[in-house]
Write a structure and sequence with these properties.
Helix content: 40-55%
Distance between the termini: 49 Å
Order of helices and strands: EHEHEHHEHEHH
Strand order of the largest sheet: 3-2-1-4-5
Structural class: alpha/beta
Oligomer: single chain
Number of strands: 5
CATH topology: Rossmann fold
Radius of gyration: 16 Å
Length: 187
């Protein structure tokens, strides 16, 4: 029997290579589009529409919980209160809080739906901190009681972009959060 894996899916382009690789590896996959960090409801809707399109193309289910951007900002504020420091200018800490929020929700969903593993498409990006993702995923998995599947998918990054182009999937210009928009405009 195939092992079931729930895949936190940050966007359709990153999902292309990761989904295909996991299917080839023999997993029974389901996507999980939980991204309260995405700033701008119009941007969120574009990414969601593209993610649903990708799910139809490969005939795989995509679970989409409610979009509450406040979840993201509350997580940042809670971090600031707990650590007594502003997070606005600390990109690594912001990403840590964001990864933790999204991976915890994915792990909880995986546990409740009896998946064998959970993982994230963030592991395909050369722009994301792999060791941080591994640490957070492993810690959250241990706490929740479901295994985090870590694999460095970065060798498939260019293939993911190609697959997104040939499937006419929306390719965003920034990570998602309001801070990444600001950083992109300053480049």
């Amino acid at each position: 029997m195939k092992k079931k894996i729930l895949i936190h899916s940050c966007c359709a382009p990153c999902s292309t290579y990761v989904y295909k690789a996991l299917i080839i590896d023999g997993f029974n996959i389901t996507g999980f589009f939980y991204n309260p960090n995405i700033h701008g409801v119009k941007e969120y809707r574009k990414r969601l529409k593209s993610m649903k399109k990708w799910g139809k193309i490969i005939k795989k289910r995509i679970i989409v919980p409610e979009y509450y951007v406040k979840d993201y900002f509350e997580a940042l504020l809670n971090y600031e209160k707990e650590h007594h420091r502003q997070i606005e200018r600390d990109k690594k800490r912001r990403c840590q809080v964001c990864f933790s929020l999204r991976l915890r929700k994915t792990a909880e969903e995986a546990k409740s739906k009896k998946f064998d593993f959970f993982t994230t498409t963030l592991l395909v990006s050369p722009y994301q901190d792999q060791s941080l993702l591994w640490q957070i995923g492993s810690d959250v998995g241990s706490e929740v009681g479901v295994d985090f599947y870590f694999r460095d998918f970065r060798k498939g990054y260019l293939a993911s972009r190609h697959l997104a182009r040939i499937n006419t999937l929306y390719q965003q210009k920034y990570c998602g959060c309001v801070y990444s928009i600001d950083e992109k405009t300053r480049e």
